[in-house]
Amino acid sequence: MTDWRDMPPLSALRAFSAVAENGSVVAAAARLGVTHAAISQQIRALEKALDLPLVSRSGRKIALTDDGRQLAHGLGLGFAEILRSVSALTEAQRERPLQVTTTAMFASTWLVPRLGSFRLAHPGVDLVLDPSPALRPLEPGGFDAAIRHGTGDWPGFEQRKLMDAPLVVVASPALLNGPLEGGPDALTGLPWLSELEQNEASLFLSRQGIAKALSGGVIHLPGNLVLDAARGGHGLAVVTEVLVAADIASGNLQVVLRDQIDRGYYLVTRPGVQRPPLRAFCRWLKAEAARVPGLNVAALGV
0.85 cut: is pTM over it? Predict the structure, then answer.
């Protein structure tokens, strides 16, 4: 195990290595972007820490002592290995695909139809899209960003509201077959559609104060198929209004119930510096979301 307390300051070692490599204090200062006085001070500090003379000075000329040459050789090997490791990591980061997770319904209905413009603007960015209802962890080397639906309550992450997206219950007019009799309680007797691994219907109805169990049956589907099934009259579905706005306007779907909680779609990322592909995706996504009618642009922070 390395005893870091015995290690001279890294800045001093770097300054000395630069002098040894470039042959002069002035050249080393230029390479490191500091003054030559700062380089001289670092070398004196290193000699004091090691209690060894590392350079011999004669006027403006400087030469390495035997101890200096030995240290320069070791530092050259060490810094070269560090540089190789750093380069390998940064190259891997550049080549790693951008990984984004969101729900299948949002991906198929809103995101994927717009990806052509992202590809045209950023042809060199490889993108992996994970359509899953699960909240995937955003970790270094893993998922870079998530597009999540909710109230913006994800502590420890940066989040930007992309668009308002209240929840609604929708159904085909053919399924309802006229005005709903019996009020909201009557909905529990109709068939429902639910995304796999989710129980949106029961949760939504309980928030509306409806405690009756669903008796009309529930069909569990991948999120991208829920809307197709709803349009086909196979059941009621809890969806975000922004994804079915066109269906509501055309009469393909009818709003049966509306949630009053302020919800939206959010872009969620880890705090800190973003790698270039992620920055490009975030800029593009916010620009696309700004085109959604009724969007609260102030929430974007742009």
Answer: no
